[in-house]
C-alpha cells in the first residue's frame, strides 16, 4: 500500500469538498489506484480535522529479557 503525506491527503480532501469531482475522478487525476483511500481521508477529515490525516507513527519499546544463563547451565 502506498503511503501519502498528510499535505497530499489534505490537498485532495479540500479539492473534493470544494469541487464537483467524484472520488473516482480524483483518484484518476492523482494516479491513486483506488478511490477508497480518498473516501477514508474525507471521513477522517470530517471526524478529526487535519489531525485525522496525519500518519500515526508509534514505535513501541519492548524490554529485553535475557534468559541465556538459565538455558546454558
TrEMBL record:
Q: Which domain of life is it from?
A: Bacteria
Q: What Gene3D superfamilies does its record include?
A: Winged helix-like DNA-binding domain superfamily/Winged helix DNA-binding domain (1.10.10.10)
Pfam families per the UniProt record, alphabetical = HTH_28
| Residue ranges of every copy of the Insertion element IS150 protein InsJ-like helix-turn-helix domain listed in the record | 8-56
Entry-linked InterPro entries:
InsJ-like_HTH (IPR055247), Trp_repressor/repl_initiator (IPR010921), WH-like_DNA-bd_sf (IPR036388)
GO MF annotation terms: sequence-specific DNA binding
Instruction: Show the SUPFAM superfamilies listed in the entry.
Output: TrpR-like
Q: What is this protein called?
A: Transposase
The root-end lineage is:
Bacteria, Bacillati, Bacillota, Bacilli, Bacillales
Amino acid at each position: 500500500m502506498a503511503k501519502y503525506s498528510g499535505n497530499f491527503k489534505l490537498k485532495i480532501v479540500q479539492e473534493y469538498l470544494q469541487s464537483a469531482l467524484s472520488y473516482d475522478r480524483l483518484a484518476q487525476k492523482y494516479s491513486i489506484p483506488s478511490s477508497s483511500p480518498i473516501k477514508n481521508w474525507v471521513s477522517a477529515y470530517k471526524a478529526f480535522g487535519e489531525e485525522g490525516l496525519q500518519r500515526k507513527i508509534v514505535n513501541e519499546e519492548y524490554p529485553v529479557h535475557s534468559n541465556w544463563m538459565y538455558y546454558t547451565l
